[in-house]
Write a structure and sequence with these properties.
alpha+beta; Butyryl-CoA Dehydrogenase, subunit A, domain 3; Heat Shock Protein 90; six-stranded mixed sheet; three-stranded antiparallel sheet; 15 helices; 52% helix
Length: 459
């Protein structure tokens, strides 16, 4: 056990000692100032002896600062961090800008430090897979930049947290790629013989504690990551910016912000049915671009466009409530893309796929229930009964069987420079359920193979 602990620490020290390109330079934000490597730069000397001394000094400087950074991460990782309720987020508006920045700075140090140690300690050397190692290095870079951008320098701190937000946007895709590499490595390491089948992590997860532990760690990783991204976006939106910066943040953090109805990242009058139709319009566009056609959508028995016109014309009292709308948009988009692709697979080439239906609970005497229960159903391929329990797991994916479309990550906003695909990473439902559960909701699924799937979302 001590040997394994030493290996983990040594591996993390190597990560901490490695150089890293600032995210701002990769994202086109402009430089945040000259990048400072961990080790002190020693000029090249003419003699071999002096070169040797220079190398020694660089190694000691790098290891010294790496040990200091490791101590900082370990100390912060021991601090607690919890999820934020909508009311907790709204209460942040009462703080001054300085207090809000200090609060955010503390939570970022704690949350990122916990994430680094969680990923570094994953069983079966999953933390050593290339994509996961890159994720760890990104988070280490976050800590470096936070330490050099204290909250009492508001402009520098704000640029730092924007860079962190940009850098961590592709984590779902990176983890999906890391898991794919890990499963491939596991299958090649345990070659079956005789009549035995190849190792399948989705089947073995409940029987192998280490595989189940990986899923538990990834749940915690994504929950902490959601907390940190939510805090960053909320605090940034609570701050006044110049017009150019404001426009960039609107595009980055929000789906289609209406400042009169937003407090930070929270839309105070979220209308889930309207968000669903708008998410469908985007998913429909992606589907038509990939395959040339897409299923129609019926909302409470009406075609989507007719419903939207009716919903805007005759507002339903009690069907609006505070929520993080861009979370909802992401959830609905991913659910719809799965349903659209499944319907196309079932219909076959050049055939019009069956429509998708969604039903929102409305007219309840308890206004708090209106539009908080959502049922989405399709007549697509469905899911085999033995796989239904696996669909929310990290090892189960249908992404590779997507009709004629390569696997790609779903971006978090419309208008991304990356070409968005109708097929995602394979972890879309896993991420959706985590987001729904973040504020106390849930997501369940029922399916019959070759008949279709019913999915229930409780907000």
């Amino acid at each position: 056990m001590q040997k394994h602990s030493r290996c983990r620490v040594n591996a993390l020290v190597r990560v901490l000692s490695a150089g890293h390109v600032p995210a701002a330079m990769r994202c086109g934000l402009g430089p945040l100032g000259p990048h400072r490597p961990l080790c002190t730069c020693i000029p090249r000397h003419s003699t071999r002896r002096r070169q040797g001394q220079g190398v020694q000094i660089r190694i000691f400087c790098a290891m010294g600062e790496a040990n200091e950074l490791l101590h900082h991460i370990a100390e912060n990782a021991s601090q607690p961090i919890s999820k934020y309720s909508l009311q907790d987020l709204l209460d942040l508006e009462k703080l001054s800008l300085e207090d809000r920045h200090h609060h955010l700075d503390k939570k970022l140090h704690v949350g990122i430090s916990k994430i680094i140690l969680l990923l570094q300690g994953l069983p079966f050397s999953l933390g050593s897979m290339g994509p996961i190692r890159n994720v760890i290095q990104d988070y280490v870079q976050d800590i470096r930049e936070l330490r050099s951008s204290p909250p009492n320098h508001p402009v520098k701190f704000q640029r730092c947290i924007i860079a962190i937000f940009f850098r961590n946007r592709g984590m779902l895709k990176a983890v999906a790629h890391g898991l794919a590499e890990f499963q491939s490595h596991l299958q090649s390491s345990f070659v079956p013989f005789g009549q035995f089948q190849a190792t399948n992590c989705a089947d073995a997860s409940e029987r192998v504690p280490a595989l189940k532990h990986i899923e538990d760690v990834l749940d915690e990783f994504f929950t902490i990551g959601t907390t940190l991204r939510l805090l960053i976006s909320h605090c940034l939106k609570l701050t006044t910016h110049d017009p150019v910066e404001e426009e960039m943040l609107n595009e980055l953090l929000m789906r289609s912000p209406n400042h009169t109805s937003y407090v930070g990242a929270i839309c105070m009058d979220t209308k889930p049915s309207v968000v669903f139709v708008e998410a469908y319009q985007h998913a429909q566009f992606l589907c038509r671009r990939e395959f040339g056609f897409a299923s129609d959508l019926f909302v409470n028995g009406m075609l989507a466009n007719d419903f939207l016109i009716e919903r805007i014309k005759i507002p339903q009292e009690g069907s609006c409530f505070p929520y993080v709308e861009h979370h909802l948009y992401f959830i609905f988009s991913e659910v719809l893309k799965n349903a659209l692709v499944s319907s196309i697979r079932k219909a076959g080439p050049n055939e019009k796929p069956a429509p998708i239906h969604v039903s929102f609970l409305t007219g309840s005497p308890l206004q708090s229930e209106n539009e908080r229960v959502v049922k989405v159903w399709d007549s697509g391929e469905g899911i085999p009964s033995h796989d239904v329990k696996k669909v929310f797991g990290y090892y189960y994916s249908t992404a590779n069987s997507c009709v004629g479309a390569p696997v790609a990550a779903a971006s978090e906003r419309v208008g991304s420079e990356e070409r968005q695909q109708i097929c995602g990473t394979g972890l879309s439902l896993t991420g959706c359920r985590l987001l729904v559960r973040y504020f106390g909701g849930d997501m369940t699924l029922q399916s019959i193979c070759r008949k279709g799937t019913d999915l229930y979302i409780y907000l």
